[in-house]
Specification:
Blueprint lengths: L32 H5 L15 E7 L5 E5 L2 H6 L3 E5 L29 E2 L5 E7 L2 H10 L3 E4 L25 E3 L2 H6 L3 E9 L2 E2 L7 E7 L2 E5 L5 H12 L6 E4 L15 H13 L3 E4 L11 E2 L2 E9 L5 E13 L21 E10 L12 H18 L4 H8 L16 H12 L11 E2 L5 E12 L5 E8 L4 E4 L9 H12 L7 E4 L16 H25 L14 E4 L2 E4 L2 E7 H7 L4 E8 L3 H6 L3 E12 L6 E11 L6 H20 L31 E5 L23 H13 L5 E2 L3 H9 L1
Parallel strand pairs: 1-13, 8-30, 11-12, 16-17, 21-22, 28-29
Antiparallel strand pairs: 1-5, 2-4, 2-6, 3-5, 7-17, 8-15, 9-14, 10-11, 10-13, 15-16, 18-19, 19-27, 20-21, 20-26, 23-24, 24-25, 27-28
Helix pairs in contact: 7-8, 7-15, 10-11, 14-15
Bound molecules: dioxothiomolybdenum(VI) ion (MOS).
């Protein structure tokens, strides 16, 4: 069988955006924007190799038990149905899908048996000539179950202390004596906050087009971590990773759910194996609510001690979270209290219960988002208890050194975030007590704020850079653009790294045959992939420089000690820019068709052991609340953020907008509701799982505070993908309190919370 490969799209940059000199810092529009607007960007599900069949999953409608019957005959008898894949005929795997040899390996449901461990778990896959036939075939399976009572909610069973939360963070951390700090406090806060489970609702549901050619596997599927996906598939199918080619040029969002290859994606590969033909499998929206991860609900108790001057004496942050019955992911919610506020005593702890859901997973700002709304609410309550303005209180109590580690911050522009955000918002006009402001229509108006923070992480990546005989450049890295603009920002770094104008550069990304870019997660992709690109570019320039300065025919001959700078496809003598040589001429004289080098990006362990590295911000929100109906509307939000060097201000602003909108949504909208009787999610669709739309955020402003962090990495890049949620959720919740005088500690805040409390 021959495989029809989808041609990789070429990214064209509109000439209007071509800039000379520094590409970093320019607000370029997305290189892939025109393709997307024209509908020419080919997402995974847009691929149709010849002979392709369609696969549709049948999923469990019960949360715990076993499948006792599937009407495979009825499904197979339906016209167009080619095959029904069940545990009875699912092709063999080399690796047990329930194996777990590292914390990044999540157990998958790949029809290994008839057991059901959560609602929406795949129980069969119907393969057919058409999508309609496969869909009808899946319906005809009419499964029957032996049902066991599902464990639902944070009190579902015996709690336990997980061995680790997040990825390898200790469940419990203590610094100082919290009980003594609380005992000596002149005022204390003791409050419990609850957050809802949330599900990743990327616009593009997980999709895969898989084709086997012998033991070679070719797939189109969205991935935030191509090399890890390749490695996981290689393990499951017992083939070498280099036999697997994954194309993921565009993702319609990910939010963490595409960080690891999911069970349904592997089922698509299995279906292609079984059918002996290319197969497409696309999740329906409701299939997203189970097998591809989610954010655990939480219950968080915060105890805070305050002295007579309004300084913190203790923070005790405890979080109860849930994981699935069969795997471990524990949302590190309490860790949010490690980094923001200075207190002589801080304790954080987690416990967990097992429930009958799919395994929770990383979801945008995992831990930080969940913990931040509780911490920022509690800090607001503490400010009120001290009779202090919430901004004044935060300025008094924010940490100069990272409280838990005691390390200095590599840089910290939080104070400017507070000052400039407050100024822009008009915070100084805020009346101190709640329920003091009304608009002309009589709606209650409230102003709240929150502090934002997210660690500046780096993982590991490689890139390969080439300068060609014609003087143009090529940068290759298997990076991931989830929509955040990675292709654009990384190409800007590449152009500067190679000393080229961006239109002299070809930037290849998004496929698994390119150098490993690590994972697009943890807000670390631009820093990690960017540093690999930067080093690869510098290595090529160093080679070109050696050729030129050692060649007596070059105007740069003998300039080795003076050094050269690269710009616009030429090397210039640093101390005399009148002397220069073009890349093309350097290569021609050396009789080289091209010159190439690789580079790596990774955190610097020495800097990391010396400094605490975080981005920071301050978010201010205004809400209006109908005093009779309890309806809440956010009317404006202002966020001021310091996140190191900004590669592309347009992309950065857009990322922070997205985060702030999610923060608002965390406070007011998003909530997966589980039926306590059946363990099924009741609102597994975008009509009832509320996500915000433009009308929910009429005015959103982002101020980027200039920050030069010399320690995070040579380019000074911190992440911006996740920080926007933190601070924002608390700011909105605190604004609801300020509008109404009602402190709601269960999120999302609903109309019923305000109406019930108001009438009580
Ligand atoms: Mo993100 S949850 O690190 O994709």
């Amino acid at each position: 069988m021959t495989l029809e490969m989808t041609p990789e799209p070429r990214l064209a940059q509109a000439p209007a955006h071509a800039r000379h000199g520094s590409n970093i810092g320019q607000p370029l529009t997305r290189r892939d924007g025109v393709l997307k607007v024209r509908g020419e960007a080919r997402y995974a599900a847009d691929n149709h190799p010849p002979g392709m069949l369609h696969a549709v999953m049948a999923v469990s409608s019960v949360a715990l038990g076993r499948v006792s019957f599937l009407d495979v005959e009825a499904a197979k008898a339906h016209p167009g149905v080619v095959e029904v894949m069940t545990p009875a005929n699912r092709p063999a795997l080399t690796e047990d899908p329930d194996a777990k040899t590292n914390p990044f390996m999540f157990r998958l449901d790949l029809l290994q048996n008839d057991r059901v461990r959560y609602a929406n778990q795949p129980i069969a896959v119907v393969i057919a000539q058409t999508l309609e036939a496969a869909t009808e075939g899946a319906a005809l399976l009419s499964p029957r179950y032996e049902v066991l009572p599902a464990r639902v909610g944070l009190d579902a069973g015996e709690s336990f202390v997980p061995a680790a939360v997040g990825v390898g963070n200790p469940s419990e951390i203590k610094r100082g004596d919290v009980e003594a700090g609380l005992a000596s406090a002149s005022k204390r806060i003791d409050a419990t906050y609850e957050t809802s489970a949330q599900y990743h609702n990327a616009m593009e549901p997980h999709a895969i087009v898989a084709a086997w050619d012998g033991d070679n596997l070719s797939i189109d599927t969205p991935s935030q971590g191509l090399a890890m996906a390749q490695g996981r598939l290689a393990g499951l199918f017992g083939i070498s990773p280099d036999r697997i080619h994954i194309r993921s040029p565009f993702l319609g969002g990910g939010f963490g759910s595409k960080g690891f290859i999911s069970g349904p994606q592997v089922l698509g590969v299995l279906a292609a194996r079984l059918a002996g033909k290319p197969v497409k499998l696309v999740l329906r929206r409701e299939h997203m609510y189970g097998p591809v991860g989610h954010r655990s609900a939480s219950r968080q108790r915060l105890r805070i001690g305050l002295d007579g001057d309004g300084r913190l004496t203790a923070i005790d942050h405890h979080a109860r979270v849930a994981s699935s019955s069969f795997d471990d992911f524990f949302e590190p919610a309490a860790d949010a209290s490690h980094t923001l506020y200075a207190s002589p005593a801080i304790a954080t702890s987690h416990d967990a219960v097992r429930v009958d859901t799919g395994t929770p997973l990383f979801m945008r700002a995992p831990g930080e988002a969940t913990g931040s709304i509780a911490l920022e609410s509690a800090i607001d309550e503490a400010a009120w208890a001290c009779g202090m303005d919430p901004l004044t209180f935060r300025i008094k109590n924010y940490a100069e050194f990272e409280p838990i580690s005691g390390k200095p911050f590599s840089s910290k522009a939080l104070r400017q975030c507070y000052a400039q955000g407050a100024e822009r918002f008009g915070w100084a006009r805020r009346p101190h007590p709640p329920r003091q402001m009304r608009d002309e229509a009589g709606l209650l108006v409230g102003w709240g704020m929150g502090t934002a923070t997210f660690p500046a992480l780096m993982f590991a990546a490689e890139a390969r850079a080439v300068v060609r005989g014609d003087g143009s450049g090529l940068m290759e890295i298997g990076a991931h653009d989830m929509g955040q603009g990675a292709w654009t920002a990384l190409a800007q770094i590449a152009a500067d790294g190679l000393g080229l104008d961006i239109d002299q550069l070809e930037f290849r990304s998004g496929t698994s045959d390119l150098p490993d870019a690590g994972i697009a997660g943890g807000s670390a992709h631009t820093a990690t992939a960017g540093m690999a690109i930067h080093h690869a570019g510098a290595a090529v320039i160093a080679k070109l420089s050696d050729l030129a300065t050692g060649d007596e025919r070059s105007p740069l001959f003998g300039a080795g000690n003076a050094g050269v700078v690269a710009r616009g496809g030429r090397l210039f003598r640093r101390d005399d820019e009148a002397r220069s040589d073009s890349y093309a001429d350097i290569l021609k004289r050396a009789s080289l068709a091209q010159i190439e080098a690789s580079g790596k990006g990774a955190a610097d362990p020495a800097a990391q052991s010396t400094y605490a590295m975080h981005a920071h911000g301050a978010v201010f929100a205004e809400v209006k609340v109908d005093p009779d109906l309890g309806q809440i509307r956010v009317t404006r939000m202002v966020g001021a953020f310091a996140a190191g060097r900004v590669i592309n201000p347009r992309m950065v602003r857009s990322q922070i907008f997205g985060g702030m909108i999610w923060g608002m949504s965390f406070a007011l909208h998003e909530q997966a509701v589980t039926d306590r009787r059946s363990g099924r999610i009741l609102n597994a669709n975008l009509a009832e799982y509320r996500v915000p739309v433009n009308a929910d955020v009429p005015s959103l402003e982002v101020l980027m505070i200039e920050e030069h962090d010399p320690h995070v990495n040579a380019l000074g890049i911190k992440g911006v993908g996740e920080i926007g949620i933190t601070g924002s959720a608390g700011a909105v919740a605190n604004a609801v309190w300020h509008a109404t005088g009602i402190r709601v500690r269960r999120f999302p805040i609903g109309i019923d919370d305000l109406v019930t409390a108001g009438s009580g």
